[in-house]
Fold this sequence. Notes:
eight-stranded mixed sheet; alpha+beta; elongated; 348 residues; FecR_C; Phage tail protein beta-alpha-beta fold; Jelly Rolls
Amino acid sequence: MNKSEFRQLLRKYLDGECNDEEIQKIDHWYSLLGEHTELDLTETEKEKLKNRLWQKIEAGSGASEVQVIPLLRRFKTRWIAAAALLLIGGFSYWALLKENLFYERTTLTVVSQNGISEQINETRSTQKIQLSDGSVVELSPESSIRFTEKFEGDKREVFLSGNAFFKVARNPEKPFYVYCGKIVTQVLGTSFWVRGNKSSKAVEVEVRTGKVSVFEQKNDKNRKENVKVSAGVILTPNQKVVYFSDNDHWVTGLSANPLPIVDEVRKQEKTLISFAFNETPLPLVLKDLEQVYGIDFMMENESLRNCTFTGEIMHQTLYNKLELICQAIDATYEIRGTHILISGKGCN
Length: 348
């Protein structure tokens, strides 16, 4: 239905001449035209429309009277507030509020057919999905995922459009595969992000725990096995890779906010690193950072080994820790791929 046809139908509705099917079209007009449609109604038509909407609102809530509420009065319900805004901005405001207040989805849209489930997140918040193997998917808004309801055979496969965080139940006998665009992420049991950018056709994989293999897959309609076009990359915690499909380019790097890797053995033995230093040589400071964050550090020259650091930096982020250390020894740090380089003149 185009704008002109809808305007004619709306005027028919104002005159009380619509049948049930046409009234239903009015109720769902926003899904056909979009939320910012402007309709050139006269003031008389706007007033008639307001009264008819009030009648419908009161009838739906069981009220016995139709009452027009003054604009500046404090409204007690969301229905009344929405109808009042009709007076301010016309019918397009009513449609916008109708979508936001009354048609906002709070659960996933689920489509199941022949043992395959597709779950679409049209809400405004991340939605959690439990898979049959115990894995958990945290699906971001405007994203969808497709998978078999029961994982059979020798692998577990899911197909992602958009962004999701995966917590994969470990099963060495049955690897877990995530397909997003041209990229395949293969894991045994770990947690990681997969982010697909539709506009740039780039796919980013970021690892939180464990180890993952990321590679490009050949477009094989009769795919029985994963055919790797390139060797791809192996990622460990706090590492990420972005793949640009337009030029088959891989860019590796570190997470925007690297998090400590929990060592269960050390945790049980209560030997967690305190990050409290007193004239500690820089190589030992960096060694502690490597153990906690799983990131390799390099020093530009041997003189930096003579530098020492004093301070308590337990509750700082990794990059804040590095800023404080570098300030103390008159150095700088630079992220190079999945490593961090410390540069400076060093100490005597």
